[in-house]
Design a protein that fits this description.
two-stranded antiparallel sheet, 8-stranded parallel barrel, 10 strands, 11 helices, alpha/beta
Length: 304
Amino acid sequence: MTALSPSSLSRIRIGSAPDSWGVWFPDDPRQVPWQRFLDEVADSGYEWIELGPYGYLPTDPAVLTEETGRRGLKVSAGTVFTGLHHGTAVWDETWAHVSDIAALTQAMGARHLVVIPSFWRDDKTGEVLEPDTLTPEQWRNLTSLTERLGHEVRERYGLSIVVHPHADTHIDSEENVTRFLDGTDSGLVSLCLDTGHYAYCGGDSVKLIETYGERIGYLHLKQVDPEILADVRAKGTPFGPAVAQGVMCEPPSGVPALGPVLEAAQKLGAELFGIVEQDMYPCEPDAPLPIARRTRAFLRSCGA
């Protein structure tokens, strides 16, 4: 890939997330302490971070503002998990989860809430929890309640939701992503395009950006190791064990090539976050920092 001029990706704001430090849960003895994550993400040259799983970073806005501010860090988004295909019966429980995180996200000055659909098999154990396809009624629940969520989050907290297609969820492949986009109001629901998850599920990120550009509201930058992915697909390995196997790899050694993705996103003419997320749960505590430094240097070489 030819290196771009430093100003060529001026609309893409680069950051990272606890995920790139092996953090999947609010509290887990296999994860680095939150103070170390903040120290190392700043040391790696990033300015923007996500909140990660709610409760991993301090949930008191005053504490978190002080801790991020003295390290020169700012928050780009919070993350919520939803199972809206189950219908209105789960709305109150979902909103209780969303509202706490939305309040913290708003207090930190961020404008986005990343919405991850619930997993049809457990991300840690691989246990099958429900069918991997939705009924027509469940699709209607998913689209209508996601629109409701987008409306409520915007009205109450001034945030935009960006729905994250994710492996082992019902919004995964090109077919399901486009069905979801076609079934939701562009004024209420945008997409967080995770390049690694979309490639994991067989999708083409550049094609999606060029086809549904007005729906792309946020980016997660990630790559997949094609050899490990082939093994994962052949064996039907669940997502959690696949990550432990190293299916998500350090750029630029995997797919998709991030340069063309960033160029396509820049052409949209919108300000976008490009948040690095290299799924690495679990990982050795000393592994993330050197990877983060190299990844930041690589993205600079792309013009980001």
